[in-house]
Amino acid sequence: MDPREQALAVQDAINASGRHYRDSIPMIASENIISPLVSRAINSDLHGRYAEGLPGKRYYQGCDDFDTIESIGIESAKRVFNCKFANIQSTSGTVSNMAALKALTKPGDTITAVSTADGGHISHHPMGAVGMRGLNLVTYPWNEERMEPDVDAACALIRQEEPELCLFGQSVILFPIPMQELADAAHEVGARVMYDGAHVLGLIAGGQFQDPLREGADVMTGSSHKTFPGPQGGFLLSDSDDEPLQKKLNNAIFPGVCSSYHLHHVAGKVVAMAEFEAFGKEYARDIVANAKSLGEALASEGFDVLAEERGFTSSHQVLTRHGAPDSGAGRKAAQILEECGIITNMNMLPGDTKAMSGPSGLRLGTPELTRVGMGVDEMKDIAKFFARALIKQEESSQVREDVTAFKSRYQKVHYSIEKGPAYPNLD
Predict the structure, then answer these.
(1) pLDDT tens sequence across 278-289
(2) Which of 71, 49, 69 is nearest to 60 (CA)?
């Protein structure tokens, strides 16, 4: 393939991916779309610039205008997340976790966290950032019925192990956890408390979930592109006025885990925060309402939806089980749904042990569907598409045709200052 053919092939694949999502029902819980103003920021000249350091303290010249952007963003983040310290430089939620672990631990320390089998993120574990930092991991006992740490047993574990850091928050997260009680046990043994809000950061900021920084967390990390509807990136936040801690957190980002921190994405985050200050509470409320409606509708169609006794969810996520543990039924269901125009991800549920071949469940999310204007009634329509694909086993081409017609009515970005297409520049 010559260089021109290669470039054109990549562009064709980019456009094909965009059309795929435009014409489908995207339900990946970790994904979202950006607004026209955010898109303009990340497509700017900033994409190739550097600004190592902090506003007013740079290692390069030519940063005055970016100093303005980052300074506005830091103050906006303090308002949005109601905190005293904010670093907005991180390039992802995982990078935020790496920085927090660098600031709060040293190699050989003990850390407690949720296991990956129970919904913990890979960065919390030896295969990820915890392993890179050389930490000793102990996982919490888990309450499968409530889909949260077993509080009494977890508190006893913390008191027994006396870890240096207690990490809470999950990649699979349906409900707020009893943070205050767990944080009290951690602080009792001198441990710092960290909350990974990657998935639920927009719900936290929008007042629709728990408020970790008011419930005992010393540090909160998060992503800027999930329920918080900005570009790819992360946040590092604290409500502590401890200046040495704040300095450690800043230094853990730069020079700790970032050199260039993708200035165009930082600018996009700052624009997204402005839009969140205007529309975030409404957006977070609607995400959760849609997730609850989706859970109810899927259960009514005959699906096994987890946590029915707790109302299915209080977040943006819904979990469905499609077969026995390690049966791979979730993997098969995700493949069938994509053939029908519904994009999901297989997910391990309690009892599963094989991450690639065995997941029995699906993790479904509502952030993108909400962003394009869908509401609780549309969640019922989507549940019917699920039933047609997986229970009635209708011909996938017919379901896809109806899905595409349904999705064609939802092609605009909502909750944004400037209106525009959700999936631009594809034709």
Answers:
(1) 999 999 999 999
(2) 49
- Between CA 424 and CA 37 the distance in angstroms is 13
Task: Report the CATH fold assignment for 38-275.
Answer: Aspartate Aminotransferase; domain 2 (3.40.640)
Contact between residue 138 and residue 162 where contact means Cβ atoms under 8 Å apart: no
Nearest partner of 277 among 16, 43, 72, 24, judged by Cα: 72
**The one-letter amino acid at 168:** F
DSSP 362: E
Taking alpha carbons only, the member of 113, 53, 59, 121 closest to residue 87 is 53
Indicate the pLDDT class of residue 427, thresholds 50, 70 and 90.
Answer: low
Q: What is the mean pLDDT of residues 332-351?
A: 96
Looking at residue 328, the DSSP 8-state letter turns out to be -
Report pLDDT digits (tens) over 243-279: 999 999 999 999 999 998 999 999 999 999 999 999 9
Beta strands in 92-191 (DSSP E): 110-113, 136-139, 142-143, 148-149, 165-168
Q: How many CB atoms lie within 10 A of CB 247?
A: 12
